[in-house]
Amino acid sequence: MATIAANLQAVQERIARAAAAAGRRADEIALVAVSKTFPAARIAEAHAAGQRVFGENHLQEAVEKITLLAHLPLEWHFIGPIQSNKTHPLARQFQWVHSVERGKIAQRLSDARPEGLPPLDVCIQVNVSGEASKSGVAPGEEARLAEAIARLPRLRLRGLMAIPEPTPDAALQRRRFALLRELKEKLAARGHPLDTLSMGMSDDLEAAILEGATLVRVGTAIFGQRQKA
Fold first, then answer.
1. The domain made up of 4-223 is a member of CATH 3.20.20.10
2. pLDDT tens for residues 31-77?
3. Residue ranges of domains in the chain
4. Is 217 helix (H, G, I), strand (E, B) or coil?
C-alpha cells in the first residue's frame, strides 16, 4: 500500500509533467491536499512529507482538525458550499475560501473577518458545466459579484474556482477549464488584479494545468478513496 509521502510525490510529478507540457514552471501551480473525511493524523502525516496547504468541505469537521493541528504551520482552504450561518467561523479559521457564489455570503465573510488577520483570500465559484445541482454562479454572472467583493474591506478577491462535472473526455475537460480561464481574463481586463485559477482534481489536473490552473485540489490521489462522511 502506497504511503501518503509516496502519493504526494507521485502527484507532484504529475503536476511537473503537465506544467512542462504547457510550457509552464511547476512552481506556478500550488497543490491543495483535500483532506475531508480523513482524520487529523493523516493530515499530520502529509505535513511530515512536506505538504502545507489543505482543503476542507465541511466546516464542523474542518474546525475540529484545525484545532487539533494548531501547532503545525498549515494553510487552510475552504472549498465546500457555504451556509450563511457558518460564515463567522469560516472567516476566523481559514486563510482561503474558494466557493463564494453570493454577495450576501461575501458581505458576511468580510464583516466576520477579524481586524487582526490579513484580508481573507477568496475565489468566486463558477458553474462551468451548468449542472443544476452544482454550486456556483453561471458564466457571465461573475463580474457583478467581483465588483461587490472588491468593495469589501476584509476580503481579497484572488480569482475563480470551478468543479466541473466529471467526464473522461479530455477535450471536454479542457473546454470547461478554458472557459474559466477566459472569464478570469475578462475580469482582469475590467481592472480586477486576479492571480488564481482554482481548478483540477485527481482525475483531471493535467487538463486544468494545460488551461492555466494555479491551484489544483487533490484528495483521492493523496489520501486514497474517500471515507464516508
1. yes
2. 999 999 999 999 999 999 999 999 999 999 999 999 999 999 999 99
3. 4-223
4. strand
